[in-house]
Design a protein that fits this description.
alpha+beta, five-stranded mixed beta sheet
């Protein structure tokens, strides 16, 4: 289901439908920048959003359901050692050929099962949010998580101890909140969460992401 039909108010910054990604171009299968999730995942995300709103925060999603054709596009890109247009921004210390071995890119993605999200937190009310998260806080900005989304580096590992105490707190706090609502984190990526009781654990969908018809 589209995220907006269940989890209203979740902000969307769907990177793979744009040039603002590690590939530097829109990814195959993203015909629109919208978040699709299975109904159980959307309902759980709505519960997370409700709790966040009460505390001056909100969810921002970068990616949700990802069709298999997009994953295949990632794989083709990863095998092209000459295509490194955004290396400095997204994988400055990792060879493209190592992105698979290190777990940053996979030939089968949990996103294709429609119950995985890549996300961060946005500050809506800095005064209320300051009771829960740390670092620079102002209305409308993202909570400091230490690295950008899709930074393929050990600094993005959720429990990386080289991050500042504020960043470590924010990552742990987000993980605890998501676990409370039935999600598990991918240790290599602080932004990546999968619903534990996902309804399609063995099924990988390949329907392109499109806007809902009116």
């Amino acid at each position: 289901v589209p995220r907006a039909s269940v989890a209203a108010g979740v902000r969307q910054d769907m990177r793979y439908a744009t040039r603002h990604s590690f590939m530097g171009r829109p990814v195959a299968g993203y015909e629109a920048g919208v978040c699709w999730l299975s109904r159980p995942a959307a309902q759980s995300l709505a519960a997370v959003q409700k709790e966040l709103l009460a505390n001056g925060l909100a969810i921002k999603v970068y990616d949700c359901y990802r069709p298999q054709v997009a994953v295949d596009d990632f794989v083709r890109w990863g095998k092209d050692q000459a295509d490194q247009v955004n290396k400095d921004m997204y994988y400055p210390r990792v060879l493209t050929s190592e992105l698979f071995k290190r777990g940053y890119i996979a030939e089968k993605s949990g996103h294709s099962r429609a119950s995985t999200v890549d996300m961060t937190l946005v500050v809506l009310d800095a005064r209320r949010a300051s009771k829960l998260v740390r670092g620079p806080l102002a209305d409308g900005i993202d909570v400091d998580m230490g690295t950008p989304f899709d930074m393929f580096d050990e600094q993005s590992h959720t429990d990386n101890t080289r991050q500042s105490p504020d960043v470590q707190h924010n990552r742990r706090w987000l993980r605890a909140l998501m676990q409370k609502h039935g999600w598990k984190n991918l240790p290599e990526e602080w932004w990546h969460y999968t619903l534990v009781s996902e309804p399609y654990p063995e099924q990988y969908f390949n329907v392109p992401v499109r806007k809902k018809k009116k």
